[in-house]
Specification:
Order of helices and strands: HEHEEHEEHEHHEEHEHEEEEEEEEEEE
Largest sheet: 4 strands, antiparallel
Strand content: over 45%
Number of helices: 8
Helix content: 10-25%
Distance between the termini: 48 Å
Shape: elongated
Structural class: alpha+beta
Length: about 375
């Protein structure tokens, strides 16, 4: 009974308020906006003042709407706003560079949780940015000064953007392999008559796998990974915990021996070369876009007194599924491999054996292959 009584009271109040407001029924066809405002002011007995910035034409059919709703509809197309001061409705263009803006705007503070204020502002529509100010001294604080309805829309959009960044684990494997492995595979060759155009490399467990699909058929081969093998060596294995939109950098370095000529003498020099990889992950639904840049620094004999410095690079973007692994890029380079030959038995004698051992070098074409694997990618 009591609930019914309360409900009736609310209905009575609502009806009373509606009868207290005169509803507007007007039709405007290409009418000057200022004239339309004067017309609804006459109909309602209210005072409406429009400054010199207000102008334009309106075509609208208003049926049983309140004065304030009529103002919202009439002013929408021209981007004008209204405010009520001491019982008088005032209409103007409420932009931050106007000296009357203070009468139309409300100011709201917001402290971001996941993004810098400058990043949040850059993601807003252009027309909203002029109403947002970045706080000095605090990169995560900002203020919104705009007409109330617009301020609420800006604040709502900022809250939608300021969500926790998604995370994922990225496994980076850098493999150095002899070029000959790509030309002659020595383990578990496979073939099928399927034709097409596709090449892929992958690591599964302790196996390095290659798949070559061309007009002759589909060739597959497996090679056992061996960290000490001259044919195939893992230079680095890294796991990085990354945030969506945050760039990470990895370095992998090794030492190579290069041959050069000085006068009539052949000499050898140890040169440190390295692989530098930059990765920027960006989520796209349930997939991940990886922007990858890889640079290989090496040295190469050029006939000069010392080997010349060589840099090679690859920059690309790939789309990956979570919990998947792909070969992203490979870079080839030439180096020298040491070959030790010795007289049997005599070459094994401690200290003296060096007199019966000869160290020589041969040119070897190698390739650095970059593998990327994604693990997980849940939101915080």
């Amino acid at each position: 009974m009591r609930k019914t009584y309360i409900l009736l009271m609310f209905l009575l109040i609502a009806v009373t308020l509606s009868f207290g407001q005169k509803l507007i029924n007007e039709s405007f066809f290409e009418m000057d906006l200022r004239q339309a405002l004067n017309q609804i002011a006459y109909d309602t007995g209210e005072t409406i003042i429009a400054d010199d910035l207000v102008g334009g034409y309106v075509t609208m059919d208003l049926k049983d709407v309140t004065l304030e709703r009529a103002l919202d509809l009439l002013l929408l197309a021209g981007g004008f706003s209204w405010t009520k001061i001491d019982g008088v409705y005032y209409v103007s263009l409420a932009t931050p560079d106007s000296d009357k803006f203070m009468y139309f705007s409300v100011t709201t503070e917001y402290h971001s949780k996941n993004y810098k204020s400058s990043d949040l502002v850059s993601l807003l529509p252009q027309y909203m940015r002029k109403y947002v100010n970045i706080a000095a001294g605090d990169p995560y604080a900002l203020t919104i000064s705009a007409p109330k309805e617009l301020a609420n829309k800006i604040l709502s959009l900022i809250r939608q953007i300021d969500k926790p960044k998604r995370e994922l684990n990225v496994e980076i494997t850098v493999v150095e392999v002899n070029e000959s492995i790509f030309k002659k595979w020595e383990r578990e060759w496979g073939y099928s008559s399927t034709t097409g155009t596709s090449n892929s490399f992958s690591i599964t467990g302790d196996w390095f796998k290659v798949n070559v699909l061309n007009y002759l058929g589909n060739f597959t081969g497996n090679f056992k990974l061996n960290h000490t093998s001259e044919e195939l060596k893992i230079l680095s294995e890294s796991t990085i915990h990354m945030l969506d939109g945050a760039q990470s950098k990895l370095f992998s370095k090794t030492t190579r021996i290069y041959q050069y000529t000085e006068g009539n003498n052949t000499k050898y020099q140890s040169v440190e070369i390295g692989v530098e990889t930059d990765i920027l992950p960006m989520f796209m639904g349930e997939k991940v876009v990886l922007n990858i840049s890889q640079t290989l620094s090496s040295a190469e004999e050029s006939g000069a007194s010392i080997p010349s410095s060589v840099k090679q690079g690859i920059q690309t973007s790939v789309i990956m599924d979570q919990n998947s692994r792909i070969s992203v890029a490979s870079i080839g380079f030439k180096t020298l491999a040491s070959v030790e030959s010795k007289i049997p038995l005599l070459g094994d004698i401690p200290l003296v054996g060096k007199l019966f051992t000869q160290l020589s070098y041969k040119d070897v074409q190698k390739r650095i292959v970059l593998f990327v694997a994604l693990k997980g990618g849940d939101e915080q």
